[in-house]
Design a protein that fits this description.
Strand order of the largest sheet: 1-6-5-2-4-3
Shape: elongated
Strand content: 5-15%
Number of strands: 20
Largest sheet: 6 strands, mixed
Number of helices: 22
Radius of gyration: 35 Å
């Protein structure tokens, strides 16, 4: 072969890709060979602990948590490569791509089937891996999160690499490769999967794998030289020469791949130990008894030690605290499957909106079943699992505080003239008391914003104010809560908060109020109060019921509604926590840290004396300075008015709610077209029994391999039957003896007779 002919053959070989391009590739411009990218093993001892791999390792962890015990190691199989693609939200349609992608039920796999997940991650930890232009675009659009799709390959299938699984998901939602910001893979993307990415998409990988682009070129050059060297011996000699070169490179790749596998075994082992040590234990669920004192099965008031509900990794997996069978698999719970994540976002759930909406005491003695509602807000809500765990802990703690303390003490009072009457002494040592005090202070700040002279309602308000004095006191109070009770189940359908001016508050409580501005006539004061009631109060009430800054208050108030119902339930039946009611015991729910009620009071006095604003407006009359003492108030949750929704109305207006709640006990539940997600947990004993499991899951459990029953359990099952045999024999013998005694005196003497 002449030199020009050899060069032509080499160029032809370089231009022809190996095999056909995978589906979803519009323009293949990457050179043959494994994808060029950033080898993080060169800078990190364990690259899988870096931010580009967090979604992949979360997927492995979630899979480990879901698989039956016999298959759990499959989640950490080093032969199952994990990959992820990070997507630019500015190039996605929020309603038709982001929302449905994140809302789709994550597909977990058992051995040999695909596993993928879509989630949300923060931009900040990934900045160093992204292109500068992409980071600038995200900053300009004020997007702090990215959408990420991660997947594990289908083992024993050469056609279903993890990148293929991801590409199928992206194709389903019409997401093109122009939205790709970053690709990550535990192993370097193989030569076939490399062409799934745009040439300019940054890629990172954990360990080198497959044949590199440079090696592919070297191999083709060596093949050409080897064939040329034996060309005079004929085609068969050329084929043998080519085969020898290929085998040489195949052996090199085999050693490299084996090295990658060995290193992944070490890396994944470290990841697994870290995640399991932190999240894989048996956490105690919220609203539950302590495992140190376990009740008998069944109903009955329990005088039990109560668990200290700290920041709960909470309800992550409800396990029976009174069962010593360590080999029993843990049952997943709807809330737990979200909150047990290793600090990552779980998709589009806004954990800051979590509110307790369902509570049940089924009488199994191990705790309460419960479910929270949360908003589904991809990229717009607070998707941090730490926020969800804090919300759960806050609700659980508040519920037990509302049971333990007497309702007449559920008030706080920020009044500059009453520094000695801020909050009940015991309530002030709890998080619920702090939330109420902070909400009282926040109310003053909200009013300050509403009556600011440069705001629309403020201008109208000050234009109508008469006289030189205006000082109003407002109280946050419970409005009527709509609930539905179904036996031992409570559904909280609506629980708004109300705001009343002190004149109305005192009137409702049978007291009279002193004039806030004694120097002014009553007509002027009544006019100003009516003006405030019409212009400011409705806006203030809306803020308290919807604004994020009052979310904690709404959360502890819903726990107060649930506790009020539970108090009434405990009057008519034995309940798990009946003995806790009005016990005054708050030791398990004391606040930790240095905060004292006087800290909030001092901030209030500072705000009250200095004012929330001081504005100088120039008018035709000159300069007018607004410096007015205008508002202070309190929060009173001593009385909770409940309105029971009838069965007929509940069935018609909330037809799908019981089903959504039941499903939420085992997995996140959302009705079609609904942007509310339900996250729940059964009691530990219910979790073991599979209460609330979806029908399809029960069917699957019946068809798939079941956990073997221990010999001890079988013996317990057979014990009643085994006892029947000796009982029957004893009864038969007794009958024969009785018959013998009745036969004749000789026979009676032979068999014996009872003494007289």
């Amino acid at each position: 072969m002449t030199r020009p002919r050899w060069l032509a053959a080499l160029l032809l070989a370089l231009l022809v890709p190996l095999g056909s391009a995978p589906p979803g590739v519009a323009d293949d411009k990457r050179p043959p060979g494994a994808a060029k990218g950033r080898d993080l093993s060169m800078q990190e001892e364990n690259p899988l602990l870096t931010s580009p791999f967090e979604p992949i390792e979360k997927l492995r962890y979630d899979l480990w948590r879901e698989l039956p015990k016999a298959d759990k190691n499959e989640a950490w199989n080093p032969y199952r490569n994990g990959a992820a693609v990070f997507l630019d939200p500015t190039m996605l349609d929020y309603d038709h791509q982001v929302m449905p992608l994140l809302k789709e039920t994550t597909t977990f796999s058992h051995t040999g089937r695909q596993a993928w997940a879509a989630s949300v991650v923060r931009v900040d930890p990934l900045r160093e891996y992204l292109k500068r232009a992409a980071v600038q675009r995200l900053d300009d659009a004020k997007w702090g999160e990215l959408v990420v799709v991660s997947a594990l390959n289908i083992q024993k299938s050469k056609q279903r690499h993890s990148e293929d699984v991801i590409q199928k998901v992206l194709d389903k939602y019409g997401i093109g490769d122009e939205a790709e910001l970053l690709g990550s893979s535990e192993r370097q993307n193989c030569s076939r999967c490399a062409r799934l990415y745009r040439p300019d998409t940054p890629l990172v990988f954990g360990h080198p794998y497959d044949i590199s682009v440079r090696e592919w070129v070297d191999r083709e050059v060596e093949i050409a030289w080897a064939r040329n060297k034996v060309a005079h011996l004929g085609p068969e000699a050329e084929r043998r020469a080519e085969k020898g070169v290929k085998e040489k490179y195949e052996e090199r790749v085999k050693r490299r791949n084996a090295t990658a596998k060995d290193k992944l075994v070490t890396d994944l082992g470290e990841v697994r130990r870290g995640l399991e040590a932190r999240y894989g234990h048996e956490p105690s669920p919220a609203f539950s008894v302590a495992p140190k004192q376990c009740p008998d099965q069944g109903t009955g008031t329990q005088s039990l030690g109560l668990q200290q509900t700290l920041v709960l990794t909470a309800a992550a997996k409800a396990a029976n605290p009174c069962d010593n069978a360590e080999d029993t698999p843990r049952a997943a719970t709807g809330l737990g499957s979200m909150l047990a994540a290793p600090g990552l976002s779980t998709g589009g759930i806004d954990f800051s909106s979590m509110e307790l909406r369902y509570l049940s005491d089924p009488g199994d003695g191990s705790g309460l079943a419960y479910s929270f509602s949360a908003d589904f807000k991809p990229l717009k809500g607070d998707a941090r699992t730490a926020t969800g765990r804090a919300a759960l802990s806050q609700s659980s703690d508040a519920f037990f505080v509302w049971l333990s303390l007497a309702p007449q003490n559920f008030w706080v009072n920020l009044n500059p003239d009453e520094p000695e009457r801020i909050v009940d002494g015991r309530l002030g040592r709890t998080d619920a008391g702090k939330v109420m005090l902070e909400a009282d202070l926040e109310m003053k700040k909200t009013v300050g914003k509403l009556i600011h002279p440069h705001s629309a309602p403020g201008r109208k308000f000050w234009a109508g104010v008469r006289g030189d004095c205006m000082s109003f006191r407002n109280w946050i109070l419970p409005a009527t809560a709509s609930v539905h009770q179904d036996g031992d189940k409570l559904y909280i359908l609506d629980a708004p908060l109300d705001v009343k001016m002190e004149t109305q508050y005192l009137k409702d409580n049978g007291a009279s109020s002193a004039a806030s501005c004694p120097e002014q006539d009553k007509a002027t004061e009544d006019h100003n109060e009516a003006l405030f009631r019409d212009l400011i109060l409705p806006r203030l009430k809306k803020a308290i019921n919807t604004a994020p800054e009052y979310a904690d208050l709404r959360r502890v108030y819903l726990a107060r509604v649930a506790a009020e119902w539970y108090r009434e339930l405990s009057r008519t039946k034995d309940t798990t926590y009946g003995d806790l009611i009005d016990s005054g015991d708050i030791d398990n729910w004391r606040r930790t840290g240095d905060w004292q009620p006087t800290d909030t009071f001092d901030r209030y006095v500072d705000s009250y004396t200095k004012g929330e604003f001081k504005v100088t407006d120039r008018t035709t009359k000159g300069s007018t300075t607004y410096v007015r003492s205008y508002v202070y108030g309190g929060v009173d949750l001593t009385r909770i008015p409940l309105k029971t929704v009838t069965d007929d109305r509940f069935t018609s207006d909330f037809a799908g709610l019981p089903q959504s709640v039941d499903r939420s006990l085992n997995a996140p539940s959302a009705a079609a077209g609904d942007e509310t997600v339900w996250l729940g947990s059964p009691t530990p004993r219910q979790a073991r029994a599979g209460v609330g499991a979806p029908a399809e899951r029960e069917a699957q459990e019946g068809q798939e391999a079941q956990e073997p029953v221990s010999s001890g359990t079988r013996a317990l099952w057979l014990l009643p039957a085994l006892l029947l045999v000796p009982i029957a024999l004893l009864r038969l013998r007794r009958r024969r003896l009785d018959a013998a005694r009745r036969a004749n005196h000789l026979r009676r003497n032979a068999v014996g007779r009872p003494p007289r």
